[in-house]
Amino acid sequence: MSDTPPPRRGLGSDGPEVSAIGYGAMGLSGVYGAADDAESERLLNELLDLGVNFLDTADVYGDGHNEKLISGPLRERRDEVVLATKFGANKETGGGKPEYVRQAVEASLSRLGTEHIDLYYLHRLDRTTPIEDTVGAMAELVAEGKIGHIGLSEISAATLRRAHAVHPISAVQQEYSLFTRDLEAEVLPAIRELGASLVAYSPLGRGVLTGAFNAVSDVENLEVRKQRYPRFQEESLQRNIELTRPLRERADELGITPAQLALAWLLAQGEEILPIPGSRRIERVRANIQAANVQLSPELVAELSDQFPPGAAAGDRYHPEGMARLDR
């Protein structure tokens, strides 16, 4: 499959056009294993060369390292990038307070070396601060030109509607994949109702849906993953690897990778879906991008949906403390 640039989709109802496959940069800050900054910067530049213009980071990734890393390509190519970052995940309480919102955006702007963030997310709901207050402070940043659009992450449908009543929400970032489909019940309908985009993180089940793992022993940096994600505990992981067998078989029949098939299924769920897979290996990045040009029949989309019903994956998405931070 040639390096055909991915098609573009609108970000929300009035946002810029972004590549249908974006890039989640978290893994470039050592989350899943060591990463070389020089190699990472080359990868980011190649992404832009390949037509990916939607880059996603956060202040908490590497405690600011990720934003500083992205500042390299931004210096020369800022006008090629629709830049998204997040705040508020590294504060136990107070991450959504208006005064902290302003403090956080100024810090991110400094690390990124830019005067403007295209899409700014509240990373996790601050239960000590009404969402109306947080979004009100973000709306002030829009008016001042510091940010272009407002996003929320891991938010309930009810909270999304309350936030949208204060200022239009352009994007909601949630985990969404063949392994994680619970948002289809309430959150995704609300996103569609309000004209927002759904930015799908971990669209490949943190690597399991790529088909790269045939056994538990194949997983890089397993101990770190086990500490964060119950789906990587040995028993659950083995069950989840087995779940991918029909995906791998179908991908082989089609002459594409399991990752491409999983991403194409996501894109087929609607024009508002924007997956942001992340990989440190350029060959995998190239393959992921080409998933945006894979057309699946409605019958195959339905077949995959039946094979991976909501709740099929073994294990929770996060350990209890992480699950407690999700707005559900």
Automatic annotation (TrEMBL):
Residues 307-328 are annotated as: Disordered. InterPro entries: Aldo-Keto_reductase, NAD(P)_OxRdtase_dom_sf, NADP_OxRdtase_dom. Keywords: Oxidoreductase. Residues 316-328 have a biased composition (Basic and acidic residues). Residues 20-304 form the NADP-dependent oxidoreductase domain. It comes from the Bacteria. This is Aldo/keto reductase. It comes from Saccharopolyspora halophila.
